[in-house]
Structure formats: C-alpha cells, structure tokens
Amino acid sequence: MRMRKTALAGFAAALLVPAVVFAQQISEQRLINGLGRLRGAAPIVDVELLRQEAMNGAGKQMSGLPNWSKVARLPQMVVEIDFTNDSVAIEPESYRTLGMIADALHHPNLWAYKFLVVGHTSSTGSDEHNLDLSQKRAEAIKEILSTTFAVDPTRLYAVGVGEYFPIEGAKSEAANNRRVQLYNLGVFTKRP
C-alpha cells in the first residue's frame, strides 16, 4: 500500500511539473509519455541563441528569458546521467539510461521529432569552465545516442547552459544541478 501511494504521488507530481526522472526510476514508456505530450506547433529554436541567452540571463529564471520561455513550454524530461568528475566521460551505469532514451526515441510515437539535449552543471567551477563542460557533456550524449544507439544525429541538438539554470530551491553547487534535459522540439522529419 505504501508503495502504491508513493507511485501515485510520483505520478501526480509528473503531471504538475516537468518530469524529473532519475536513472533508477526511468523507463522507456515513461520517456515516450513524457516527451510525446506535444500540443500544437513547436516554436522554431536557434540553439546558439539559446546558449547566448543563458549566458546573458545569469540569475534569471529560464521562463523569464524570451527564447527559453518558448522552450520551457515544450514536453521535456530531466534525466540523471552520471559523468566522471569534471569530465565528459559517461559513467558505465548511465548507459542503461541512455539505452532507454534511445529506445524511446526510436519508438513510433517519437521517431518523427527532433530533440534538444541541454546540459547543466553545478556552480563548483568557474562560469566559463562550467559552460564549456556542460556543452561538451550535451554533445557527448548526442554522440553516444547517435553512434552507439543509432539515433539519427540530425534529430538531436546539443546546448550547454553551465550553472545558469539551477533547480529552483536548490543550492547552485548542489549535485542535482548536474543534469541533462531532453526537450521535444516538435519538428517533424521524414522517415527514411
């Protein structure tokens, strides 16, 4: 009974806020459901503009920035991917999570969409270092999904925003700020 209440509370929370999914709780179906909730046309997204806006909007909420506010309304999932400290090397235990992400992206409900991979860091390094590290980590995830798991790389975009968008209410140096977000950009592609 306690487990059922916990599951219901988690499900209710997922309906109210962007889905926060950690490696041990992730499932292909949960990813498909979370990323497939696109309603209406998605905005056109310029990845470099998003990066510039993140750097210039330090200290502001993501939803308060013009281009990020558009992205923030898109279906998204926050996923825990573990990296070696201060590195782009993905820890072996995270490959299971990446495999489930890839399986979800290959699912018929999602195969026609493009996705934005957003890398975040905590504030334990310099702004410039964290921005660079988060970009490299987002690109590493894109590369693993496309090379190891055969997700078409033209469906994936990577942007790192460093420490600029910490989880609300968390200390900026907290480990849970080291995360990856996936956004459904809603742009249809033709299946080969």
Using only C-alpha atoms, the radius of gyration works out to: 16 Å
Give average pLDDT, whole number: 78
**Approximately what portion of the residues adopt beta-strand conformation?**
5-15%
Query: What is the 3D shape?
Result: globular
* Low-pLDDT segments, ≥5 res: 1-24
N-to-C CA distance: 47 Å
- Count every helix, treating DSSP H or I runs of 4 or more residues as helices: 6
What class do helices, strands and sheet pairing give? alpha/beta
* Total E-strand runs: 5
Largest sheet: 5 strands, mixed
The portion of residues assigned to helices is 25-40%
What is the helix/strand order?
A: HEHHHEHEHEE
Sheet with the most strands: spatial strand order: 1-2-5-3-4
Q: Could you write a compact summary of the structure shown?
A:
The protein has 192 residues and is an alpha/beta fold. The chain has helices spanning 2-16, 28-35, 47-56, 66-72, 95-106, 127-147, and strands at 19-21, 76-79, 115-119, 156-160, 180-184.
Characterization of this structure:
Helix 6 links the parallel strand 3 and strand 4. The protein has six helices and five strands. 38% of the residues lie in helices and 11% in strands. It has 192 residues and is of the alpha/beta class. The protein has a five-stranded mixed beta sheet, sandwiched between helices.
Q: What is this structure's SSE topology?
A:
Layout: H1 2-16, E1 19-21, H2 28-35, H3 47-56, H4 66-72, E2 76-79, H5 95-106, E3 115-119, H6 127-147, E4 156-160, E5 180-184
Parallel strand pairs: 1-2, 3-4
Antiparallel strand pairs: 2-5, 3-5
Helix pairs in contact: 2-5
